[in-house]
Amino acid sequence: MPWVGTNSTGQFACATASQRTLKHLRIKRKGQPVVVLGHLLNRKGQEAAFEVFNDRIALVKFSDGGAAGYDPAELLLPTEIDDKGIAYFEIRPCRSCEILFPLTLEECDSDREPEQCPDCIG
Q1: Beta-strand (E) ranges in the chain?
Q2: pLDDT by residue (tens digit) across 4-26?
């Protein structure tokens, strides 16, 4: 059965210290903006919108109408969503493992951005 809903505030989620990918969200909201990392090279790094979650696969839709399924761990949350609903992504490669990870709004605004992903730091 698909698992779709809103987060506790009823808004789309942004990257936080504990929630940086769609996998981290307890409830996935249809339309949630994400950036895909995954297995399709022609889609890697593109923005998409989450559609539905079913049996460990998140279906996302791209602006050109294309759709693909991804592991939710391959879908990065935006750093910020402005008052017009436009998502901004600040994504950096980890200096240790080279995996891409999104910055939180606080990290983006700080004088020194993190150079390692949370997995390598922790």
Answers
A1: 33-36, 47-54, 57-62, 67-70, 75-76, 80-81, 87-88, 91-93, 100-102
A2: 444 445 689 999 999 999 999 98
